[in-house]
Specification:
The complex is a heterotetramer, with two copies of chain A (about 260 residues) and two copies of chain B (about 300 residues).
Chain A: E1 5-18, E2 21-27, E3 39-43, E4 53-56, E5 59-61, E6 66-72, H1 76-81, E7 89-96, E8 109-115, H2 120-131, E9 139-146, H3 154-157, E10 162-167, E11 174-175, H4 178-184, E12 191-195, H5 198-211, E13 214-218, E14 234-236, E15 248-250, E16 257-259
Parallel strand pairs in A: 8-9, 8-12, 9-10, 10-11, 12-13
Antiparallel strand pairs in A: 1-2, 1-7, 2-6, 3-4, 3-7, 5-6, 13-16, 14-15
Chain B: E1 5-7, E2 10-12, E3 16-18, E4 40-42, E5 59-62, E6 65-68, H1 77-89, E7 94-99, H2 104-113, E8 122-126, H3 137-140, H4 143-156, E9 161-164, H5 172-181, E10 186-189, E11 193-196, E12 198-199, E13 204-205, E14 211-215, H6 220-233, E15 238-241, H7 247-256, E16 260-263, H8 266-269, H9 273-288
Parallel strand pairs in B: 3-16, 4-7, 7-8, 8-9, 9-10, 10-15, 15-16
Antiparallel strand pairs in B: 1-2, 5-6, 6-14, 11-14, 12-13
Helix pairs in contact in B: 2-4, 4-5, 5-6, 6-7, 7-9
The chains are: A alpha/beta (about 260), B alpha/beta (about 300).
The structure holds flavin-adenine dinucleotide (2 copies), flavin mononucleotide (FMN) (2 copies) and FE2/S2 (inorganic) cluster (2 copies).
Chain lengths: ~260, ~300, ~300, ~260
């Protein structure tokens, strides 16, 4: 693994994917080190805001040094990013975080579960699992939850296996959340990878227990440094860990992906 | 060109340090920065036993800076001795351990545990963290309490001590004088200024602890003023910090009276900030024809 | 929708005021803003006699804000009565006169001169200007002195008084309680935080007075925290200020406990700021289904 | 006179005039109210800097709503302005200040003296005096001081009368300052208009006394509001004035142009 860097990146393209959801491709050497489930920090130019915005890696083309992020316009930083156009430059910090443990998938029935803006990092995971011989699963099912019919990335997920959709308003797929969709479809799994809001992740962890699967879930927390130095972004673990010695893992470096069994959710 | 400064008998190759709590124990930023180039690494605060810190959210962004209420999470002094100090020993830089506690005895315990650690060059005593209920801030906002605890720590410390002062006081000069009178070898300032942010849509505090410490460029003018006032109130050296992002900022603190300077929250904005500050100071010195960095310390009266 | 608030018996059509010293006596900004729309115009501080103020440079820009050391230049209360009050009387807004002095008697003199001025609805007593050597700040940094002067002024004031507190203190709650105990009808905060800027190339202070008061967005988290602490320490209403630029900022202060809010330095960035804040508050209220603005005062506990 | 405004302006063009000196033309309705010697506040976009930058009006085309400013790159704000290109937008505050008293020129021998970055506002003055019948002077002499041969606007000044140049290094015109140039050329005047650094303005005031002329000089000071509200930008006057009652005039509103006789220089 190469060193983390703060580095300039050039915008290759940007487009609107769904209401308030942007798809941004960057040219950066960081792509060479990217793994699914990792993230980068994107720095706004606006000098009133100094902290990097953590955004998951949605996809990468290592050879062409392309990194893809898909994000929701949530505040001043992402609103600024949404204005970037081809040829613009931006500063990014990365590659950050551990990423999904691919090796756990080998030969297993894998289910990938995403909700809302937790969906994008799972696309990179689905792609990697389909392409990477070493971690080839027995099967891959994907379950993605959206608010309504304004979904995004679904066409791309379909390239990598069976896709189930849940929508809150029932306009597409199962009416309800991703767990409802899993149950409705009797989804079975040995290994679950998930990313989404905390209530969903709690549901996933419980469902995994129920069906006897391992769950690897990606968490979110407010961050400052992004590199494990400030202790801003901790989550509670069941056991005392090596770093903190107080049952606090750093999401930015020890995570963002954790074995659900290790967490106090 | 001489960029080295002397603080309480310890020689630093340059005045640029890391501000406690913003640089881990150096390990995390060693990927970005050659620690050998730093004047000193100042560690995250360490207590006698592990502390879990505050609930999350612990950090929030504000205009030109951030709030934090980490609450002094730390793995305890034993882990520091077994893990962090051996790591730091391999670098050609000075090591300052930041010490926190809830009672005088807590501080004394840490200081005694570190007494025989040769790789620790100085101790910075954090009596100014605004984010822990029963923590050091009580000592840091009252000159008599500051005097007493300084005196007690000084009795037990083998390394020179730096009392780290809180800006949340009416008179920083009075606090500086209390630390000096009790025998502190140096002082550092400022710790964060207590602040608050409210999310008007969620109708909650942005920080779980309600209040957090404000740091970053937003506080620089207050920090420069306090460094000026403190360095004019005492004879012991002053280490200045608060919003330093560039060499210009660092020089401003030195002209105001700081012998050392520390980069804090701006490491998060620019992980190379410390090195850029060091290089920028050298450029300034050659540009201004300054041979010895000590000439600029307190040069604006 | 009800946006009106009541402070010490005075009804304001909305909580949005101008911060003293940043809006002249209203005349200068009347070109930009319809004064009739404001909750109140708060005038520049006025003394018993004209004051010349400090030498220039009096202002300097800093990250996310500015320093000022105007030094309370003012034409004296007689000119205010002859020129500014008649001008303001023609507007459908409340008028709060900010009062400064060097001694208790100075303040009393002004307050007595204004006693029979019907167009003055409240008096804001500035005991917190950091920029005058012998000025009010001595009263503003000591709870006993604050108590005494408040009591004395209250004896002579015909209009309700607002003691304006300094943030340059260890405990804002203690200061708020002292003002309340002495009979102040309301308090306002924060005045500026003392800061300093040094020009590293000219090797001089950016402000002739050396130090200046920091204001603007940079200080907002400190101001919100102090408004929260003060409003939880006393029962009298609190007027909050410090870096307010937008309706979101103003609402943050109100959720923290402010009944009124004032726009200061950001008038210089955006001369329409006061009106935009008023309109934004109304939008927030309809968006959130809030019928009465008083519901949001101190709503985040 | 119309009201002061903060208003968006569109960049018509920008070019480099001399080393570090930029010539920026803006499309703005404020041009309709502009007078020589007045200024505008230009707001940087950089959110760490919130105050407007006072920049003198160098020229204006009222009909086409064009305003021209010529400025030196002096710090972060002007460095940002220097990057503006045709079509960019920027916020300006104006029109600010009193401007030169044109009526004093009618039928008089007028001398216009500028130094360094004090030169630009005098171009607008020279133009107005040459075009405005009501204030037509008997004669106009212009004396401009520069550091070295890297002068600017001289070709344009020459359209409006006799131009003398002083350079510190003597590379063009008189070696020395503008007063040296006046003396060397025996410049006579009834009325002097001047803008430049304070030592030069003191020299101008003294020279005016010597030759029995009236001097109207434009001052500079650090400003915050630009509209007379903050009392940041005062200069010392000889007499108690109507506004301050303490011999302090506000440069932004009572000035920037003052009768030198009224000032405590
Ligand atoms: C590991 C990780 C991966 C993420 N991946 C994605 C992604 O792929 N796509 C996506 O749209 N969003 C993602 N997020 C959330 C994203 O970081 C926030 O939406 C973003 O920071 C908002 O910034 P802003 O300036 O627009 O909002 P503002 O509210 O203006 O931001 C203010 C501050 O709060 C922080 N902040 C605000 N919301 C969040 C949040 N939800 N999580 C963490 N910090 C926050 C910002 O970083 C900034 O420091 C991820 C968060 C984490 C922690
Ligand atoms: C009435 C008036 C007219 C002016 N006209 C011109 C002009 O036509 N062309 C030109 O090049 N310059 C002019 N100046 C000077 C110009 O305002 C400054 O060079 C400019 O503000 C520098 O801004 P900055 O952000 O680049 O520098 P910075 O140093 O980064 O600015 C920091 C702060 O200091 C202020 N400041 C810095 N230098 C000055 C200065 N000399 N005078 C006043 N404020 C200053 C800035 O406005 C800002 O608030 C004028 C000044 C005044 C008062
Ligand atoms: C995330 C964070 C953690 C901090 N932890 C400590 C600490 O453990 N001990 C301490 O003395 N100061 C701590 N500080 C204060 C900094 O060392 C410094 O005094 C302050 O942040 C001002 O400098 P800055 O503006 O450059 O950050 C912390 C600051 C931040 C931002
Ligand atoms: C230029 C200037 C002049 C001021 N003059 C006064 C004054 O005369 N009396 C007073 O009580 N406060 C004065 N203040 C303080 C403001 O009223 C306000 O309390 C402070 O600036 C914080 O608010 P802000 O950040 O919105 O500016 C002044 C502030 C500025 C910037
Ligand atoms: S964000 Fe700093 S430790 Fe994770
Ligand atoms: S700049 Fe505010 S009064 Fe002139």
């Amino acid at each position: 693994m190469s060193k983390k860097k703060k580095i300039g990146a050039e915008v290759i393209s940007q487009r609107l994917l769904a209401e308030g959801i942007m798809d941004l491709r960057l040219r950066t050497s960081l792509a060479e080190d990217a793994k699914p489930g990792q993230f980068i920090g994107v720095y706004p130019q606006n000098k009133s805001t100094l902290l990097p915005r953590p955004i998951s890696i949605c996809g990468y083309d290592r050879e062409n040094k392309e990194l893809r992020i898909v994000y929701r316009i949530a505040g001043s930083g992402t609103a600024e990013f949404a204005l970037y156009q081809e040829g613009d430059n931006t500063d990014i910090l990365g590659v950050l975080g551990n990423g999904f443990p691919l090796d756990k998938a080998a030969g297993k029935r894998v289910v990938i579960i995403g909700g809302g803006i937790g969906v994008p990092p799972l696309l990179g995971l689905a792609k990697e699992l389909s392409e990477n011989a070493a971690s080839k699963p027995e099967s891959v099912t994907m379950v993605m939850g959206y608010r309504n019919a304004d979904t995004f990335l679904t066409d791309e997920f379909e390239n990598y296996g069976k896709l189930l959709i849940a929508t809150e308003d029932g306009s597409i797929g199962t009416k309800g959340n991703v767990i409802d969709a899993c149950k409705e479809n009797g989804v079975e799994a040995d290994v679950i990878y998930a990313c989404g809001p905390m209530p969903m992740l709690r549901g996933v962890a419980a469902y995994a227990k129920e069906i006897g699967a391992k769950a690897y879930i990606s968490l979110e927390e407010r961050m400052a440094c992004g590199v494990g130095a400030c202790l801003g972004c901790i989550c509670k673990t069941k056991e005392v860990d090596d770093h903190s010695h107080v049952k606090n893992a750093r999401i930015c470096t020890d995570g963002p992906v954790f074995d659900a069994d290790d967490l106090e959710l | 060109m001489n960029t080295s400064v002397n603080i309480a008998g310890v020689t630093f190759k340059n005045p640029v340090m890391t501000a406690s709590g913003t640089f881990g124990s150096g390990m995390e930023y060693a990927e970005f920065v050659d620690l050998n180039r730093l004047g000193a690494v100042v560690t995250k605060g360490v207590a006698n036993v592990p502390w879990p810190g505050n609930p999350t959210p612990r950090v929030a962004e504000v205009y030109g800076g951030m709030l934090n209420a980490i609450g002094l999470q730390n793995p305890g002094v034993d882990v520091m001795i077994e893990r962090d100090l051996p790591f730091l020993k391999d670098f050609d830089t000075k090591v300052i351990v930041n010490v926190c506690g809830k009672s005088t005895q807590d501080y004394v315990d840490v200081v005694e545990r570190l007494a025989d650690q040769d790789s620790v060059h100085m101790l910075e005593i954090n009596v100014s963290c605004p984010n822990v209920k029963e923590g050091g801030i009580a000592f840091g906002q009252n000159p008599d309490a500051l005097f007493e605890i300084t005196k007690e720590i000084k009795k037990h410390a083998k390394q020179p001590i730096i009392m780290k002062l809180s800006p949340n006081v009416t008179s920083i000069a009075e606090m500086a004088r209390a630390a000096e009178a009790a025998g502190s070898d140096a002082i550092s300032l400022i710790n964060t200024i207590t602040g608050m942010k409210i999310d008007i849509y969620k109708k909650t505090f942005a920080i779980a602890n309600k209040t957090g410490g404000l740091s970053g460029p937003a506080i620089k003018p207050v920090a420069v003023r306090m460094v000026y006032e403190a360095s004019h109130a005492v004879k012991i050296p002053v280490i200045g910090m608060g919003g330093i992002a560039t060499a210009e900022d660092a020089i401003e603190f030195m002209l105001a009276g700081a012998t050392g300077v520390a980069v804090g929250a701006m490491n998060f904005h620019n992980p190379y900030a410390t090195i850029e500050v060091i290089e920028g100071i050298e450029r300034y010195m050659s540009g201004q024809g300054i041979e010895n960095i000590n000439e600029i310390i307190g040069a604006v009266e």
